[in-house]
Structure formats: structure tokens, C-alpha cells
Amino acid sequence: MTDASIGGFAAPGFEPVREAFVANFSRDDGEPEIGAAVAVYHRGQCVVDLWGGHADRAGTRPWARDTLINVWSATKGVVALAVAILVDQGRLRYEDRVAEHWPEFAAGGKGEITVAQMMSHQAGLNGFLDATTVADFQDPQRLAARLAAQTPFWPPGTAASYHAVTYGILAGELVRRVSGQDVGGFIRDRIAAPLGAEFHLGLPAGLEWRVGEIVGPAVSGVAAMELPEIPARAVANPRLDPQAPNDRAWRAAQMPALNGQAAAQGLGRIYGALADGGSLDGIRIISAAGIERLRAPRHPGPDLMLGPRQWAAGMSFDVAPIFGPHAATFGHTGWGGAFGCANLERRVGIGYTMNRMGGRVVGNPRGAALSAAVFACVDG
Questions:
Q1: Residue 43, by phi and psi: left (phi above 0), alpha (psi -120 to 50) or beta?
Q2: Chain-wide mean pLDDT for the chain?
Q3: Dist. CA 157–CA 89, nearest whole Å
């Protein structure tokens, strides 16, 4: 990959981000980019908008500015924002008991679980008790009913353990109960469409031609994890195939923890709005106070599955550091490496997408290199 074959721009002062992006295509660690994009917003302006490579393994389709790709758990950050918007509208409080809005949820001794606990992976529902398949996700309300009937795997509020799959079912059902709208429609109408952000949960058939092919890692970090019984429930039932997003049925469904289809610009615009106090290009999606509630620490860590990590209300503060050098940067990563993040103090929002999944459980060194370059430019 040469610099000349990269599309887009890096504003003056952000040239190192372009250099890092180009370098990611020739990494010698076995995981160079196939196709990727990165978008950076600073003080409400797009300062980096880059894309390159190919949208397919065979190298027949160039990656475009609007190429969509499955971003796995980076979906969770946008779903967390949807809940935060409902809180900002006064229709919900993080201190509320979930059962106030979803009465069936009180079964199995869960009547005192708060919205904040559910959103920060403390509810004890990190897996399904009954055998579950990916096909079951075609009916999220049915899965929500199953989770509502379950007894928690640990006393809620006493520990956090990543709800890798169930988080989306829980948060999505809460959005539906409070707003009367499915979570994919709520995100479309209240976040994506107003911002002009390419992010879809439940991809319309007419956009299929823009979706890139996911290329799974040679060795999956998730498969290689040796976990105790409780955190293992998050990834054992069902076990996810890294190639699953290449199926139309997967992309058409609403899996609010797993299958957001996004362009880097889409994530960049969403987190760019958060980084600038809740608005972008004159469009406000949440108040500054709403962002503070969203990013308020809810559990100090560690997470029983992921280790050292501080959870906010569905957002994670920086670890590794995937999002750059500043601990206050928050957002969400996806399996394989896609992410969106925001830093309020520096007014920086970043969106990164790619089709070659990294082998690590969280993040990949390509995205980390881009974040490091962005903040080196901003911090001077």
C-alpha cells in the first residue's frame, strides 16, 4: 500500500495519522490491514478522513469512504448512547430499577437491579441458561423474555463480568419498553439520521452492496481464553463464528451487542458529537449533562472476563491503551479491533473500522497506533 492509493485527507498538523494509517497496511506482525478507514473529529471539525485497501479478501472491491462493516461490540457504545438519550429526556433514570420499566424483569430475584447496574455489566445475566443459537437472535424479544425469567449467576451489584452477547438484548429491550420503538429504529431516528452518521442496526437490503467482507483472525483470542465458569458463560452459548457477519441474515437482524454495520465516518461523527458536548454541525443529540451521566463511573473493575477495566453506563474507559494515552477517554471496542471513542477535555472523537479482525480479545495494534498518533497531534 502506498500513500498515493489512500483516499481522503488529513488536515495540517494531523499528517502523522495518515502516516500511521498507511503503515498499518504493511505491518509485519501477520495482521496488516486488508481494508480500513479512520475518521477523527476535533473541536467539532473533521480533521482526518482516510480510507484504503479492499473491502473483500480477494482484493476485487476497493474500500470506499462509505464502506460499511460489522463492528461487533463497538455496537454497544451506540446502544449505550441510546439509553443515555432516554435518560437525558427524563424518560428513564440510571437509578431506576429495571423492573419499573420492564415488570417481568423482576423474576428470579432481580427486582432491585438498577439500570446503572445493568448497563455496567453487573446484573449477573452475562449468558443464557438455555441452549441458544445465532438463529435465535432473529427474535430479540423472545430472548429478552428468557433473560427476564432467569436467576442471576451472581448477586447483582457485587461484581462486573462482561455481558458480551446479552448486554444488547437487555439494553435493547429497555429502549423498546421506554420509547415504544425497537432499538435499531431509535438509533436511526435519534442518532444516525440527525447526524448523517452511517450506522445501522438491522441493515436495509438496499445497502447490502456497500458492506465489506469480514476476514476472521487466524487464531481467535476469544476461543483461546481459559475462563472460569461464570465469565465463560458470556462466550460459550452460543459460540460466535468470526465469519458470521458475512451472512445477510446476520446483518438484517437486530443484535444490539454484536452487529452494528458502520462506516468509520459514522462512528467518528457519533463520537465527535459526544466529544464536543453533544452536538455536531448544529445538531444536538444529547446535552452536556447527559454525557456526564453517561460517562460517570459505575464499576471500578476489575471485570471478571476482561480484567482491569472501569465501566461507565455501557461505555468503557481507556485500557491497554486502545483509545490513546488518556485515561478519561471513553468509548467501546469491537471484537477484532473496530472502535469509537471520545475525549471531552481535548474535544476529540475517533471512529475506526476494518475488515481484517485482529487476534486479540480487545482491540488491535493497528487501531491503537492510530489513536496514539491522533493524540500526539492534539497534545502537541
A1: left
A2: 95
A3: 26
**Cα–Cα distance measured from residue 365 to residue 322, given in angstroms and rounded to the nearest whole number:** 8
Residues 6+ apart with CB under 8 A from 298: 94, 116, 117, 119, 120, 122, 311, 312, 313
Look at residue 219 in the predicted model and tell me its pLDDT: 60
Give CA–CA dist 48/178, Å, rounded. 37
Q: Rounded to 5 degrees, what angle do the CA atoms 219, 221, 224 make?
A: 85
Q: Is the pLDDT of residue 37 over 80?
A: yes
Q: Which residues fall within 8 angstroms of residue 103, CB to CB, at 6 or more apart?
A: none
Q: Indicate the pLDDT class of residue 296, thresholds 50, 70 and 90.
A: very high
Specify which residues 9 forms β-bridges with: 49
Return the DSSP state at 15. Answer: H
Q: Is the pLDDT of residue 221 over 70?
A: no
Catalytic amino acids? Answer: 73
Strand 339-343 to 330-333 pairing: antiparallel
% of the chain with per-residue pLDDT over 70: 97
**Is the preceding peptide bond at 321 cis, omega within 30 degrees of 0?**
yes
Peptide bond into 302 cis (omega under 30): yes
Look at residue 217 in the predicted model and tell me its pLDDT.
Answer: 83
pTM: 0.97
Residues 169 and 165: their CA atoms lie apart, in Å, by: 7
Give dist(CA 235, CA 224) in Å, integer.
11
